Amino acid sequence: MKAVQVTVLEGPDSLSVADIDTPVPGPDEVLIDVAYAGVTFPELLQSRGLYQVKHDLPFTLGSEAAGVVAAIGESVTGFAVGDRVATIAGKGAFAEVMTAPANATVKLPDSVSLSAAAGMPMNLLTADFALRVRGRLEAGQTVLVHGAAGGLGTALVQVAVAMGATVIGVVSTEEKAETVRSLGAAHAVMSDGFKDAVKEIAPGGVDLVADPVGNPKDGDRFTDSLRCLSTFGTVLVLGFTAGDIPQVKVNRLLLNNVGVAGVGWGAAFAKDRGLIARQWEAMWDHLVAGKLDPVIHGTYSLEEAGEAIKQLETRAVRGKVLLEVKKEA
To answer: Per DSSP, what are the bridge partners of residue 187?
Structure first.
């Protein structure tokens, strides 16, 4: 079978497509004929050996995919050959066939296409965990989303809107603002000067700030996010795509009765292997209703995996980048 291999840690341009043996599922795994794979930020880091999880070389890249179950391990229940599924795994998704843990694999509603499903696992599960679990979001509250037009940002917007929140998206261009508003965000503001714009929209502050961006090297976005919070509000820390990790002066938290919460979905799943199933159940009705439908920025072939991954560095991506492995019937 064909698979995108990391053989040297020299970045996306060093990736190669090779013919490798088709994997065999272990007792607790499913074998999936991959239709589409989602491209995520960890792949960019893994191609350079910069991700916190290390794999022995060579390895097949790819964290998430959607396809059809081809076989199941002897201990697996709840799945059958032919089921349409999505999955999230540490590696192996950029291939014609992959194995995945059964507890990290979910069945799809008939209304969800395999292409859409490939863009769901990492972003939707992270967004749900951030807003519903860590942020305890309630209908009627207001959420500020940084990087709102990106893959995770658009998922955060859609999940928050589906939960009945008012969403303010922070973006860098008017084109991205249009994307965010099309997803149901009530407002879109530019990243430069976002604090003042948010104060005009929500004078009393916002209940949650979802921040997958962190601080740019020439600014302190995080402190401005704290200043946007209402009393008892919380900044949800999801990542640092801008590069710099913010520092918190905790006296600001004390004086203003606000908080900061870490959102480590992967760490949570590592300790609670039933987490994905419960999250998928919580999102099921929204999925069926079409409220959680990833924006697709572009679709590439396996041979174009390096180019697809490099798109994430341009900061121009709106929504999700996919690899098409096998056309959907």
So the answer is: 168
Q: Which of 112, 93, 108, 26 is nearest to 55 (CA)?
A: 93
pLDDT at 53: 86
User: Which residue would you say has higher pLDDT here, 311 or 94?
Assistant: 94
Cβ 287 vs Cβ 112: under 8 Å: yes
Q: What is the pTM of this model?
A: 0.93
Give residue for tokens 């019937």.
329
Q: What's the DSSP call for residue 14?
A: G
Least confident of 73-82, 212-221, 289-298: 212-221
**Eight-class DSSP state of 244:** B
**Cα gap 87→28, rounded to integer Å:** 14
| Distance between CA atoms of residues 276 and 122, nearest Å | 10
Q: How far apart are CA 247 and CA 4, in angstroms?
A: 38
Chain position carrying tokens 């497509």: 17
Helix 121-128 to helix 151-162 angle (10° resolution) is 50
Four-CA torsion 47, 304, 126, 107, nearest 10 degrees:
-120
Angle formed at CA 104 by CA 101 and CA 106, multiple of 5 degrees: 115
Residue 243, pLDDT score: 64
CB atoms within 10 A of CB 24: 10
In this structure, what token pair is assigned to residue 251?
């006296």
Residue 239 predicted with pLDDT over 70: yes
pLDDT at 219 over 70: no
